[in-house]
Design a protein that fits this description.
Elements: H1 2-6, H2 10-24, H3 33-39, H4 44-72, H5 74-93, H6 98-126, H7 131-157, H8 163-182, H9 197-201, H10 205-227, H11 229-232, H12 236-265, H13 267-287, H14 292-320, H15 325-340, H16 343-353, H17 358-376, E1 410-415, H18 420-434, E2 437-449, E3 453-456, H19 460-476, E4 481-489, H20 492-506, E5 510-513, H21 520-532, E6 536-539, H22 549-557
Helix pairs in contact: 2-6, 2-7, 2-8, 3-4, 4-5, 4-6, 4-15, 4-16, 5-6, 5-8, 6-7, 7-12, 10-13, 10-14, 10-15, 10-16, 10-17, 12-13, 12-14, 13-14, 13-17, 16-17, 18-19, 18-22, 20-21
Length: 562
């Protein structure tokens, strides 16, 4: 970890710093909502429009962020987003009416969408030490931003409600200068993206189902985030501390707990459980609305369920969508932000004209509908490789497995991390000794970043090159070999699951894998395969040299070897 941090170029830290400030925007205004309403003589529903305009324009802008980046490049898109945030946040701090702030928050949302859509890609491109390390830095920035936003808002808001707006403008100006100075120019992508592609993606049942689930879930999310500060009746500082604790739990459960639930219960089951938890929390807030202590505890505890839901929801979208990741991400972000943006305003109106607890009951009801949507579309919300019987799902990639593979001994080689050719060379004598056909598997990993986005940890081109090299090595050694790329989203357990599932389909009786030096994640995959496989598992160490023929035969006929 220390080496990872010490070897990063200044450009990575410049973008990471700006990312922290950008993600502060989620909860920055929470502590100052009552102060704005008091000083500007506005109603709660008027003040709630600060959330509505911000999230609505963030959602709409998600349709254009990929379009802009594909035409001017990621660095220019990043800097355009920063400029917009600086201008509109500073102008919001100088406003004298709620209407002005609402309009300026819309421009802030547009800039934030441009920044968020490209920050991860820029950090990955500029970081040293591999994609996994870059993702770790981005996740840390996201978690810090979410948790520090309410704290900064509360501390600066204690001076004046204008303070948080000016603070963001100043911090983003520092980030802009650093990025302009230290981040190298990025090339313009060769392929341009149309603004209509994310909208077309919603025609697919899986994308539509996840979008509808997200709309109703975000209604509950934005109701709590935007309306809860009013019935809490806390001062600016205390509101900041309350929502800081909420943000910390959200970040912790998004990064650390959600993946564990995914492995144990599946994405859809874990997501359904978290949504039910949100329903319960909102119901309790409605019932116990007169107790300040109960409301504080509920707000903080809701961060756990929101963190799990954000991660698993994003994971479901990325795994099940039959379109590319950028398009799926744009479509999902568009519907979830736009759909939930009206929630704070409606909550404010209900609080003014019906009762203080009515917004919480409505939020619980809408989140319950999200549970219903999840159940209704559950058969479509599975990894695309597992989807079957859906007319909208694309046909699976044809696997170049010869008929003879079903008539002879079967041997699967799982490669990755650059060890493919070396493992293939060592495995060739084993295959020849048994007269086995060999099928090489290479899994392309996709990681969900703290519930907000997903990124490929390896490009399709690089994975294909490694796979081809391994197959070529085997064929040059006189072994009949084919290869196949698989995809997995999430953790080492998910990667192992994909390899074991494909091994079972091929009815292979042996899996050959190779460890990777100083690569903990890859070696965890090896451990998962060895622990769960029903076939023999052979771990080959490239540094140990090739095996002799007699040793090969003994290993293949023996028990599982790890």
């Amino acid at each position: 970890m220390r080496r990872l941090l010490s070897t990063q170029p200044v450009a990575v830290w410049a973008v990471a710093f700006a990312a922290v400030v950008s993600f502060m925007g989620l909860g920055l205004v929470d502590p100052i909502l009552p102060a704005i309403a008091h000083d500007l003589r506005a109603s709660p529903s008027d003040v709630e429009l600060l959330f509505t305009s911000y999230f609505a324009f963030t959602g709409i802008s998600m349709l254009f962020s990929s379009v802009v980046a594909s035409r001017i490049g990621t660095k220019k898109t990043l800097m355009c987003g920063l400029v917009l945030i600086i201008i509109f946040s500073a102008a919001a701090g100088s406003s004298n009416t709620v209407g002005e702030i609402v309009g300026l928050r819309a421009g802030w949302g547009f800039g934030n969408a441009l920044f968020i859509a490209t920050a991860l890609a820029v950090i990955v491109g500029a970081a040293s030490g591999g994609v996994a390390g870059a993702v770790m830095i981005y996740e840390a920035a996201l978690g810090l931003g979410i948790s520090l936003g309410p704290l900064v808002g509360g501390e600066l808001g204690g001076i004046s409600w204008r303070g948080p707006f000016y603070g963001v403008a100043c911090l983003m100006a520092v980030g802009f200068v650093a990025i302009a100075r230290f981040l190298p120019k990025t090339p313009v992508p060769a392929q341009r993206i149309s603004v209509l592609e994310p909208l077309r993606a919603l025609r697919h049942r899986a994308t539509r189902g996840s979008g509808l689930t997200a709309i109703f879930y975000n209604f509950g999310f934005f109701t709590l985030l935007g309306y809860a500060p009013f019935p809490l009746h806390l001062g600016v500082h205390d509101l900041g501390y309350t929502f800081t604790a909420w943000g910390l739990l959200l970040a912790i459960f998004a990064v650390f707990v959600a993946p564990r639930l995914s492995r144990r219960f599946s994405d859809v089951t874990g997501l359904g459980g978290a949504l039910v938890g949100i329903v319960v929390v909102l119901l309790v807030m409605g019932i116990a609305h007169a107790s300040q202590t109960a409301l504080i505890v509920c707000v903080i505890c809701s961060g756990m369920f929101f963190g799990i839901t954000n991660t698993l929801m994003t994971q479901v979208v990325m795994e099940s969508a039959p379109v590319s990741r950028p398009i799926a991400s744009s479509a999902y972000s568009f519907v979830r932000f736009c759909g939930g943006a009206v929630a704070p305003f409606i909550a404010g109106k209900l609080g003014e004209h019906v009762s203080m607890q009515a917004p919480f009951y409505l939020g619980a009801g809408m989140t319950a509908i999200a549970v219903g949507m999840l159940l209704f579309y559950r058969k479509s919300l599975v990894p695309i490789e597992e989807a079957a019987g859906d007319d909208n799902a694309p046909a699976p990639e044809a696997h170049a497995v010869p008929a003879s593979l079903r008539q002879s001994r079967r041997l699967v080689i799982a490669v990755g991390g650059g060890n493919g050719p070396a493992i293939a060379t060592l495995a060739a004598p084993l295959a020849r000794a048994q007269g086995a056909e060999v099928h090489v598997l290479h899994v392309i990993e996709r990681d969900i970043v703290a519930g907000e986005d997903a990124i490929e940890l390896e490009s399709d081109g690089a994975a294909r090159d490694q796979l081809d090299d391994a197959v070529t090595e085997l064929q040059a050694a006189g072994v009949s070999a084919t290869g196949e790329l698989l995809h997995a989203t999430g953790t080492h357990a998910d990667i192992a699951t994909r390899i074991l599932a494909r091994t079972g389909e091929l009815e292979a009786n042996t899996i050959v894998v190779g460890p990777q030096r100083n690569h903990r994640r890859a070696n965890q995959v090896v451990g998962e395969i060895a622990a769960r496989a029903s076939a023999h598992v052979i771990v080959l160490h490239p540094e140990a040299g090739p095996l002799g023929r007699s040793q090969d035969t003994h290993e293949l006929n023996g028990s599982r070897t790890v």
